[in-house]
Amino acid sequence: MMKRFFIFLILAIVGYYIVDVVSQIPFGENRVNVGDYYLDKSPSELKVSNTVTAIVVNYRGFDTLGEVTVLFLAATGLASIMFRRKRKGEKDIRAKKASSRIIQIGSQILFPIIILLGAYVFIHGHLSPGGGFQGGVIIATASLLMLISYRKFKVNHSTISWIESIAGIVFVLLGVTGLILGKTFLENFLPTGELNNLLSGGIIGIIYVAVGFKVAAELTGLIDTLLLNNRPEANKEK
Amino acid sequence: MNWLVIPIIVLVILTIAAAIYAVISKNLLYAVVSTGVVSLGLSMFFFILQAPDVALTEAAIGVALTTIIFIITIRNTTEIECCDEKKSKIDVKKGGEK
Amino acid sequence: MMNEFLMISFYGTAIALILIGLYATLAKKNLLKIVIGLSIADSGLNLLFMAIGYVKDGTAPIFSAEVVGKNVVMVDPVPQALVLTAIVIGFAVTAVALSLVMRLYRHHNTAAIDEIKNLKW
Which residues in chain A have Cβ-Cβ distances shorter than 8 Å to C84? Predict the structure, then answer.
């Protein structure tokens, strides 16, 4: 009883201070300062239609490199925490019985369509809403669909590893090329085309394609690691 | 913007009710599905705030991937009921109180 | 009038989600409920951040073919870029927390934190 009272007291104090600070920020006022500069320079200098993509990849590109690293560390950490040595004669089981025919046929039809949608989203990241992260997550959802419907669907872990490593290396190499050419890290060194064209924006499109591949491969490997963990009936240890 | 009043009220009530149910419910599977409904309501909020990129990201990550990771955890821990009653030997010792 | 209503609804929902998530983290005894509370508090914070960057009668910051050259008011694009990163990192934190829950269950065979303290020796 005392514990509940103290928890409510803490929540009331935190809530009061948050409301006190946030109510002093007027809602909907036009106080854009740095955003005005980005909204001005993005269609005129960089020739990129999607301003959010230009900020994420070009103006604040270093933060995106950090985010990709955090995702990679999370996937590696998860795989290493869940590691378990196989005992003798233990098989990898996923489900007790197979799915029905409707689910199997339906996922076979949907699988290439979802991959096509994900590829469209990350290739056109600088023209319409979307980008590398969104497209990568959509492709991971497609492979999750196949992993749930079929018990024999296998994901080759070494191929996934190679795709992920090569995509990450491409990202860092593009940044270092900016350094070699005498400018800053992750500087835009390819010619920018016209607005609303597919080949516009210099290296922004190439970076987002690399990020899309990397996120898709990483999340597929993560879900496959989690799904293959044995059920607790096979876990009778300690 | 005046026609948006009723949808915004419905969305606010839906999101907060789903969040309260996710915390209070005793069945863990229902709580996880309610977390997915909170993410869905949040994606609609982002769309009303004129941000299509963020709405796409929240809908893809919050609804699909977070729910599936939670369900895989429930499958591996097999704890369907929340706030597990204590095991039988401690129950006998304390006379059955929580 | 409309502005006041929007302000109360957006800020109010975000703060309510943060407080509900914090309550679940502090007061619940099942490990999975604690991680659910963490995820809900993350979502509330992202909504609060986005609601600060809204400009009245603004539109999405994308220069499609109809909008180029005209003088339209657009919403602030900087908080959107930051919230994009924050959502992905929130998901990564939830995934690692859940893998720790699974490992704890494998070792102690229970998912209530009271029992785990009792089984220490």
Answer: 52, 56, 131, 133
